[in-house]
Amino acid sequence: NVFLRKVSYEQYSHMSIVANKFDERPTPIFCPRLKLLMLKLRFEEGFKLQDDFFDGMSELSVIKLSGYDRNSILPFPSSIQRLSNLSTLWLSNLRLDDVSIIGKLVTLEILSIRGSDLQELPVEIGNLANLTMLEYWNTGYRKRMRISPGVLSRLVRLEELHMVGVEDCSYSTLRELESLSRLTALAFDECSVDVIYSNL
Questions:
Q1: In CATH, which of 3.50.50.60, 3.30.310.50, 3.80.10.10, 3.40.50.2000 is domain 14-198?
Q2: What is the DSSP annotation of 39-85?
Q3: How does the average pLDDT of the chain come out, rounded?
Q4: Which Pfam family, just one, is annotated for this protein (predicted)?
């Protein structure tokens, strides 16, 4: 199968691609008006997009990347950091070895990571000063994600924080939330009662 037969889709503003197999790696396509891209790759083994994959999609504001059975289409193509209009990034069913490059997407307002294996939320995520929603939801992986110290306290515009599948929250983790004056929704699945009450 061929990823996309044409190299230019100038008239498209939204695109959804679902594929089980490609005979060759997807090449970059020219979509200068594209606002939303949904890409679901159902492979039984790891997969990586070319580094320049997003170079022809400069207007992208929403990306949803989905894998199959937590196999990887990552590391992220380096071109993702050049998407200066990106406001929403949804990631699901991926093996995420390193997401530090996401910290360069300073226009992001929504970051959702679901059903994906991630060992640590890196310090670079703290650079996302415009983030209003941060979600990590992973209940099927035996090793829980660690939140790097100092990340949450820097997300001063955060309104929603959902952390399911992370290490047991500590006193220091909850203390970081004190600087989030706009926070209206909070969820931690592993947080002992004494830690919560001591921070009320």
A1: 3.80.10.10
A2: EEE--SS-----TTTTTT-TT--EEEEE-STT----SPPGGGGG-TT
A3: 82
A4: LRR_14
